[in-house]
């Protein structure tokens, strides 16, 4: 349960777990309803949920799955903030305000719910409050707080399985890679334009 951790985060955890639990389906919850909010589809189809919008509802998910083990996958506040700025937040800023697509409607709702459409001011507070909420909700449950740099050991011990051979890399996946490249190109272009304007006599 994490408010966004691409690369070696949400999806990475799911891929890692699938190495040991091939029958387990860890996918982004964007395509699957969250129990109590969008129906019961997720509860019947999946054994794991990751990413938005599922990460917005840690208390409800913990209650919906009383026997589930809980993994809080997280990274540093600064890395999370930078990643959000170049992915979900940037995408929301550049969308047409009245975009009627289901994903756009969902995005507008969780941006308002999580940081009041002011990510720069309240995003970091949301990040820390979310992680603490997961910790508080997980009291009395099988719980692991894990970062990618912790390696296979804690994750495998938590799952009760043997760790893979030493040197086995983590599966990596970043659905936003190409988008991030475009954002960086856009930043460089704007910076260059600014430099040209400043240099104009």
Overall body shape: globular
Instruction: Classify the beta-strand content into a percent band.
Output: 5-15%
Q: Are there runs of 5+ residues with pLDDT below 50, and where?
A: 4-43
**Helix/sheet category:** mainly alpha
Terminal residue distance:
53 Å
Count, helices = 9
Q: Identify the strand order in the major beta sheet.
A: 1-2
Q: Order of SSEs, N→C?
A: HEHEHEHHHHEHH
The count of DSSP E runs of length 2 or more, i.e. the number of strands, is 4
Helix proportion of residues, in percent?
A: 40-55%
The main pleated sheet reads as: 2 strands, parallel
Write down the overall mean pLDDT: 74
The count of domains is 1
Please tell me about this protein's structure:
The chain is mainly alpha-helical and 201 residues long. The chain has one domain (10-199). Helices cover 51% and strands 7% of the residues. It has 9 helices and 4 strands, in the order αβαβαβααααβαα. It has helices spanning 10-20, 41-45, 58-64, 77-85, 88-94, 102-115, 119-137, 152-159, 177-199; strands at residues 26-28, 48-50, 70-73, 143-146. The strands form 2 sheets. It has a two-stranded parallel ribbon. A two-stranded parallel ribbon has the order 3-4. Strand 1 (26-28), helix 2 and strand 2 form a beta-alpha-beta unit. Helix 4 crosses helix 7. It is globular. The relative contact order is 0.16. The model is unreliable at 4-43 (pLDDT under 50).
